[in-house]
Design goal:
Blueprint: H1 4-12, H2 18-36, E1 39-42, H3 44-59, E2 71-75, H4 102-109, E3 113-118, H5 152-159, E4 165-170, H6 176-182, E5 185-188, E6 208-213, H7 216-226, E7 259-263, H8 273-288, E8 292-296, H9 304-319, H10 338-349, H11 352-365, H12 370-394, E9 397-401, H13 417-421, H14 428-433, E10 437-444, E11 450-457, H15 462-474
Parallel strand pairs: 2-3, 2-4, 7-8, 7-9
Antiparallel strand pairs: 1-3, 4-6, 5-6, 5-10, 9-11, 10-11
Helix pairs in contact: 2-3, 9-11, 9-12
Length: 486
């Protein structure tokens, strides 16, 4: 499918209708879903109604916004009023929210067309979308491989042209890592820039909603639509939202030279040589576009994974306590008493990875272990943030690989949780520090699998990330390549 801007031009010139564009997306979903499994729920009837409303506005001579009539996929941990929101978990199999999340309401108000809810790792806990209770999403570049996670459905849907853009959530890399694996652009915004109201919580101090797009501009347009203060979210930031598209220029040659820092700790042992080569070439390309390249150190970067896997499960342990079979969701009918109902419901409703993280978190928060684990992890989190702060005294933007490898085969890591957790090695520290970060395609390995370059910015400097990513993207052809999935 064409970009947002191209489709918008076609709509206002009446070369195509919103219904035609929507039907094209729905037809492609119908054709590809039997082998791709990106969507848990396809909202065809609602999508066509939304498209007809856009066409009616155009026919009446009314102005439409740039997202009006654009097909979009929504990760199934964002509440959608009247439409199932399962979080890919059996415990929420029949849950239909009575309210709308802030971001999906903003998109509806902008005239965007929601074509469906995308698959994810259960409660966003995973790095491959294999933890979904319903189906395993395939990578459009190689159906035997994973699309990354937890927002694998959202990334795969955009890569396969099932929708133009999509929304995901990122707690430890769940937008950027699947963006890297699927060869699309994915942004994790500054913590607090996008409202979390209506996002089913995994780890509340880390979760952030962000966009996927085939191009940097598409991601920038979508972020503009969802960013902004929301009184319903106590962590929402009261800041002015710039026009992110306005920062997109073909090079990095400005009056003041842009300084880019290469995080030296992200290279070396554990990094696939093909990924290292692609990222190194991308850094050289940024230099040729006018950036000044520096090597910087973030010495506590490698402690991101161990601290994250104490903090995130601890918050998950508290957040998932609400799924008890009393108010909504699954309830075991075979229980003799209240306690039995709780345990039977959770045993049947939660998958293995969710149970694992709840147990880790409950243990870390328990009496006698809180100081040894949770408190220590929070101290490490502070040190990681300090490392970023020091690095940003020297440079404007940081770069490193998005993931240490390209997409791995489905089933390859399911019996080895530690190996799976390490796929988020490069992305987790960003969440711990609350910074914005973006993954942009920067090459392919010898098997035709995409490689991602991660750009990390200062707080609320998404505009700078878009500027660097767009200049790089426009100087290469990686974003023009598409998977051969029929």
């Amino acid at each position: 499918m064409a970009s947002i801007r191209e489709l918008h031009k076609q709509l206002i010139k009446k070369e195509r209708s919103a219904v035609e564009i929507t039907q094209e997306a729905l037809d492609r979903i119908q054709a590809l879903e039997p082998k791709l499994h990106s969507f848990l729920c396809v909202t065809a009837q609602q999508a066509l109604e939304q498209a007809r409303a856009v066409d009616a506005k155009i026919a009446a001579g009314e102005e439409i916004g740039i997202l009006a009539g654009i097909p979009i996929g929504i990760k199934d941990n964002l509440c959608t009023k009247g439409i199932p929101t399962t979080c890919a978990s059996r415990i929420l199999e029949n849950f239909v929210p009575p309210y709308e999340s802030t971001v999906t309401q903003k998109l509806a108000d902008a005239g965007a067309v929601m074509v469906g809810k995308t698959n994810l790792d259960e409660f966003a806990m995973g790095s491959s979308t294999e933890n979904s209770a319903y189906q395993v999403t395939a990578n459009p570049w190689d159906l035997a491989r994973v699309p990354g996670g937890s927002s694998g459905g959202s990334a795969a849907a955009v890569a396969a042209d099932e929708c133009v853009v999509s929304l995901g959530s990122d707690t430890g890399g769940s937008i950027r890592q699947p963006a890297s694996f699927c060869g699309v652009v994915g942004l994790k915004p500054t913590y607090g820039l996008v409202s979390r109201y209506g996002l089913v919580a995994y780890a509340s101090s880390l979760d952030q909603i962000g966009p996927f797009g085939r191009t940097v501009e598409d991601a920038a347009i979508l972020l503009n639509a969802i960013a902004g203060y929301d009184p319903k979210d106590s962590t929402s930031l009261k800041v002015e939202i710039p026009n992110y598209s306005a920062s997109l220029k073909p090079d990095l040659k400005a009056r003041k030279k842009l300084r880019i820092g290469v995080i030296k700790e992200t290279f070396g042992e554990g990094l696939d040589s093909v990924v290292e080569t692609a990222v190194t070439k991308a850094i050289d390309q940024l230099q040729s576009l006018g950036a000044e390249i520096h090597i910087v150190s973030c010495p506590r970067f490698r402690y991101g994974v161990p601290s994250y896997y104490i903090i995130a499960p601890s918050e998950a342990s508290a957040n998932l306590a609400r799924y008890d079979g009393v108010k909504y969701g699954l309830r075991s009918p075979e229980a003799d008493n209240l306690l039995s109902m709780y345990t039977r419901t959770r045993a049947a409703g939660f998958g293995a990875e969710v149970k694992r993280r709840i147990m880790i978190g409950t243990y870390a928060l328990s009496a006698g272990y809180y100081d040894a684990y949770y408190l220590k992890a929070q101290k490490i989190r502070t040190l990681i943030k300090e490392d970023f702060d020091k690095a940003f005294e020297q440079v404007d933007v940081l770069v490193c690989p998005t993931a240490p490898t390209t997409a791995f085969r489905a089933g390859e890591k399911t019996t080895d949780p530690l190996s799976m957790y390490l796929t988020d090695l490069m992305t987790i520290p960003v969440n711990l520090a609350g910074l914005p970060a973006l993954s942009v395609p920067c090459g392919f390995d010898d098997q035709g699998l995409p490689v991602g370059l991660q750009l990390i910015g200062k707080v609320l400097r998404e505009d700078q990330l878009f500027q660097v990513a767009h200049a790089y993207e426009q100087s290469t052809t990686w974003h023009l390549r598409k998977p051969k999935i029929a």
